[in-house]
């Protein structure tokens, strides 16, 4: 029983080392393209809507070309299913 456990530990350790070595040889991720800048700016959208344009304009003036916003469960599914089905939209 102890031998089986040691064997599993060695197998897991070997697999982990093998994956780490394979990943080390992989090429690094490349930027989308030169001049591409973006931010995660979901907090802007927590402000009153009349304030959004001013903040987004400052970002654009700084060279940002992409603004990302998180998707929350509350936005994607405001009413959770009560059975195995979602309520009709």
Identify the notable features of this structure and list them briefly.
89 residues, mainly alpha, two-stranded parallel ribbon, 3 helices, 7% strand, flat
Can you put this structure into words, describing what you see?
There is one protein chain. The protein is mainly α. The protein has one domain (2-70). 42% of the residues lie in helices and 7% in strands. The protein is built from three helices and two strands; from the N terminus they run H-E-H-E-H. The protein has a two-stranded parallel sheet. Helix 2 links the parallel strand 1 (38-40) and strand 2 (66-68). The mean pLDDT is 75.
Number of structural domains? 1
Number of helices: 3
Poorly predicted ranges? none
* Cα-based radius of gyration, to the nearest Å: 24 Å
Overall 3D form = flat
Tell me the total number of β-strands. Answer: 2
The fraction of residues in strands falls at 5-15%
Topology order in helix (H) and strand (E) letters: HEHEH
Largest sheet: 2 strands, parallel
Q: Biggest sheet: strands side by side, in what order?
A: 1-2
Distance between the termini: 56 Å
Structural class: mainly alpha
Mean model confidence by pLDDT: 75
Helix proportion: 40-55%
Summarize this structure briefly.
The chain has three helices and two strands; from the N terminus they run αβαβα.
Q: How would you summarize the topology of this molecule?
A:
Blueprint (H helix, E strand, L loop, with lengths): L1 H23 L13 E3 L11 H10 L4 E3 L4 H4 L13
Parallel strand pairs: 1-2
């Amino acid at each position: 029983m102890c031998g089986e456990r040691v064997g599993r530990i060695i197998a897991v350790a070997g697999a982990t080392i093998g994956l780490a070595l394979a990943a080390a040889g992989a090429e690094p991720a490349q930027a989308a393209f030169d001049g591409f800048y973006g931010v995660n700016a979901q907090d802007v959208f927590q402000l009153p809507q009349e304030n959004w344009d001013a903040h987004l304009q400052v970002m654009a003036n700084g060279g940002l070309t992409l603004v990302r916003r998180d998707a929350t469960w509350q936005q994607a599914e405001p009413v959770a299913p009560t059975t195995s089905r979602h309520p009709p939209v």
